[in-house]
Amino acid sequence: MFKSLLIHRPRFPLPASLFPLFLAACVVDSGKKETTADTSRLAPVVTVTPVNRGTHGMAERVLWAFSPDGKAVLAVADPGGVENEPVANGFFFGDETRGFQTQMDSVWDVAPSPDWKWIGFGRAYTVVPGDGARTDLLTDVSRRTSIDTATLRAGSFPSSGMSLSRAVAQAGVIHVPENPRAQASVDSAVPRLFPVARGWRVRWTTDGTTLALGNNPARAVDNEPSQTWSALDPVTGAQHGTLPSNAKLADLKLTGGPTLDRSLPIDMNQSPPIKIERGNQTFNIQSERGVITLVETTPAAANKTAPRVVGAGIALAATAGGRYIIALAPRGKPDANEIAIEPVVYTVTW
């Protein structure tokens, strides 16, 4: 893949005591937010992707959910503003069976279909900022969403309890391709946005045929639920004002991880090991002294592979085969006004 080995300053600094392990498999800084690790011949290739490249708010919740077989994951970074005002989320989706992954910022909500073949989301836009300038962004948002300004104005909602800012949601979907390498899969994997000003909350019906779009929040609160739902056909884009009377909404159970807040310290030295299986091999994802490593635990293996460094931080969860590891990692260039830790996903490719 690379004609020569390039040595760069690590994105996440490692303790000096772990330099020997670091030389076996390292994550290097490519100068961009997403970095690539080149390792020795027998080691996996590791990339790291922030869950949220957008605004992180005053505090940020980290949540995730796995598909029933544990091989696909949805990780969500859910920030909140002052007094828990709405702040758009970021998410990462990865499916190790299909080898597909994607990341998106600026969404109010996101949910996979019950079969995990679709991703529904509500894209977030600001139409009136709260900076006191009283600038009307309706024309710009209309051009970007293909929704007329009258519909956007009617579909907007207050996004702050302390200013006149207003926001809007736009419904969208991603169809997870069966084979991301196939040429026909390119169009499927591109996010498809519909000219519908709705989607503060999104859910799927239990049969997976309909994306339910929640009404606007009654209050400018980040976790405010929707009370009513309309129906969107993800294939045709047809919208109906209400769900069918016999429709039932699938319940997405998200696991709540740490809340990142500058006033709340988080132990970044270690976390419990995570067991994974890759073929006939078993591994532990270990987080010790601020470094995540893969340690083979295959019973009675004559020649166990050497521990491999994944990256800096602590692991929170992982898919069944260990391809996607949700973790907390130190920011490469932390802003003085932001949390110094961020949720990331390490992608481990063997």
Describe this structure in words.
- The protein is mainly beta and 350 residues long.
- The chain is 7% helix and 40% strand.
- The chain has helices at residues 19-24, 138-145, 149-155, 185-189, and strands at residues 35-37, 45-50, 59-66, 72-80, 89-95, 100-112, 118-128, 157-158, 166-175, 192-193, 202-204, 211-214, 229-232, 239-240, 255-261, 270-278, 281-288, 291-296, 308-312, 314-318, 324-330, 341-349.
- Strands 3, 4, 5, 6, 7, 8, 9, 10 and 15 form a 9-stranded antiparallel sheet that branches. Strands 1-2-22-21-20 form a 5-stranded antiparallel sheet, with no helix packed on it. The protein has a 4-stranded antiparallel sheet with strand order 11-12-13-14, with no helix packed on it.
- Mean pLDDT is 86; it is low at 1-41.
Strand content: 35-45%
Task: Based on Cα principal axes, name the global outline.
Answer: globular
User: How do the helices and strands follow one another from N- to C-terminus?
Assistant: HEEEEEEEHHEEHEEEEEEEEEEEEE
Give a count of the beta strands, DSSP E runs of length 2 or more: 22
Distance between the termini: 13 Å
Helix content: under 10%
The overall pLDDT, averaged over residues, is: 86
Computed CA radius of gyration, to the nearest angstrom? 21 Å
Unreliable spans: 1-41
- Which structural class matches the secondary elements? mainly beta
Q: How many helical elements?
A: 4
Query: Main beta sheet, described?
Result: 9 strands, antiparallel
